[in-house]
Write a structure and sequence with these properties.
Structural class: alpha/beta
Number of strands: 14
Helix content: 25-40%
CATH topology of the largest domain: Rossmann fold
Number of domains: 2
Largest sheet: 6 strands, mixed
Order of helices and strands: EEEHEEHEHHHEHEHEEHEHEEHEH
Radius of gyration: 24 Å
Length: 319
C-alpha cells in the first residue's frame, strides 16, 4: 500500500522573514516536483516535510501520522530524506557512512551492510564505495544522498535538488530511479530549479514562488493552460513562389509567418492534430514538405506566465 503526505497551512518564519506563507497540498504515490528558483521556499518546505525543521504554523501528516505529534518518531521512520548537503563523516568510506546511516535508521548490521552495497550499486558508486568520503566530488555526494534516503526502504522520499552537479548520464540514471520508485507506490517529493526535470519526472508539478504554491497540475495540464501555443516549423523541399502557400496559411485559422522562401511557421495549441491537414493542403497546391518540427511550450514558459519572473532569477522571500 502506498503512502500519503498531507501538508496543511504550513507557515515558516525566520524573524521578520516569511519563508512559507500557508502552504497546503496532498501527495500520494508518484513523483511530485516543486519547481522554483533559489529563494522560493522549496528547501524550507522539504525540510519541514522530512521532519528536519519545525513549522511556525500548520501541520504535516505522513501516512496518517502527524509529523510533529506524539507519534512523530514513527512517522519519521517512514521518510527518506536527501538534503542538499548530505550527512557524511569525512574519515569514513562511502560504504561505512551508508552502513552507519542504516544503523541509525534501525537496521541490523547485516541488513545495513546488504542495503549499503545494493544502494551504492544502484546510484553508481560501487567502484567508489571504499574511498573516503572526503574524496567524494559534489556529484558523488548527491548520489550518496539518494542512497541515504533509500536506506530504510521508506514510503516517502524527499529529495532537495537531487540532480544539481550531476553530469547528463548520471542525471538520466537518477530520473530512471525516481520513476521506478513511483512505480513501487512510493511518494517521491523533490525540489528542483530545472524545468526539464520537473517536466520529465513530475506526475504533478508545483510552481513555487516567494513562499507559495502558485499553480499545480500535471506538466501537460499546466502547459496547455498557461503555456504559449506550440510553434510548427515547416520546411519545404524547394524554394518556390509562395502565393499558394499564403492561401493555405490564411485558411488554417492559425497565426502564421513566412520565414523564407522555403520555411513557414504556424502557432497552435494542438499542433499534432493540425499538421496533417496543413501538409495535405500544401501538397494540393504543389508544395512538397521536407521536414516538420514542433517546438512545444515548457514549464519554464509556464513559470514566467504565472509569476512574471525568470526561473533562474531570485525568488525573494523564501529559502
Amino acid at each position: 500500500m502506498g503512502g500519503k503526505v498531507v501538508v496543511k497551512g504550513v507557515v515558516k518564519r525566520y524573524g521578520k522573514v516569511l519563508a512559507l506563507k500557508g502552504v497546503s497540498f496532498e501527495a500520494g504515490p508518484g513523483v511530485h516536483s516543486f519547481l522554483g528558483p533559489n529563494g522560493s521556499g522549496k528547501s524550507t518546505l522539504l525540510a519541514i516535510i522530512a521532519g528536519a525543521l519545525r513549522p511556525s504554523e500548520g501541520y504535516v501528516e505522513v501516512c496518517g501520522i502527524e509529523l510533529w505529534g506524539k507519534e512523530g518518531l514513527r512517522a519519521r521512520r517512514l521518510i527518506g530524506y536527501a538534503p542538499q548537503d548530505p550527512p557524511l563523516k569525512p574519515l569514513l568510506t562511502g560504504y561505512e557512512n551508508l552502513v552507519y546511516q542504516g544503523l541509525l535508521k534501525g537496521l541490523s548490521m547485516g541488513e545495513a551492510k546488504r542495503r549499503a552495497k545494493e544502494l551504492l550499486n544502484l546510484v553508481g558508486l560501487s567502484e567508489a564505495m571504499n574511498r573516503k568520503a572526503s574524496e567524494y566530488s559534489g556529484g558523488m555526494r548527491r548520489r550518496y544522498a539518494l542512497a541515504v534516503a533509500l536506506i530504510n526502504d521508506p514510503k516517502v522520499i524527499v529529495l532537495d535538488e537531487p540532480s544539481t552537479g550531476l553530469d547528463p548520464d548520471a542525471r538520466r540514471t537518477l530520473w530512471d530511479i525516481m520513476k521506478e520508485l513511483a512505480k513501487e507506490d512510493k511518494v517521491v517529493i523533490l525540489a528542483t530549479h530545472y524545468a526539464e526535470e520537473a517536466e520529465r519526472l513530475g506526475d504533478l508539478a508545483y510552481i513555487m514562488y516567494r513562499g507559495e504554491i502558485i499553480v499545480k497540475g500535471s506538466p501537460k495540464e499546466l502547459k496547455a493552460k498557461y503555456g504559449p501555443p506550440s510553434k510548427i516549423e515547416i520546411k519545404l523541399k524547394e524554394e518556390k513562389e509562395l502565393g499558394g502557400v499564403k492561401g493555405v496559411l490564411e485558411g488554417s485559422g492559425l497565426e502564421w509567418r513566412i520565414i523564407s522562401k522555403d520555411t513557414l511557421v504556424l502557432y497552435s495549441q494542438d499542433p499534432y492534430s493540425r499538421i496533417p491537414e496543413i501538409t495535405s493542403a500544401l501538397l494540393k497546391e504543389g508544395y512538397y514538405v521536407k521536414t516538420v518540427r514542433v517546438e512545444e511550450p515548457t514549464l519554464e514558459d509556464v513559470f514566467f506566465k504565472v509569476t512574471g519572473a525568470e526561473l533562474e532569477g531570485e525568488g525573494g522571500g523564501g529559502v
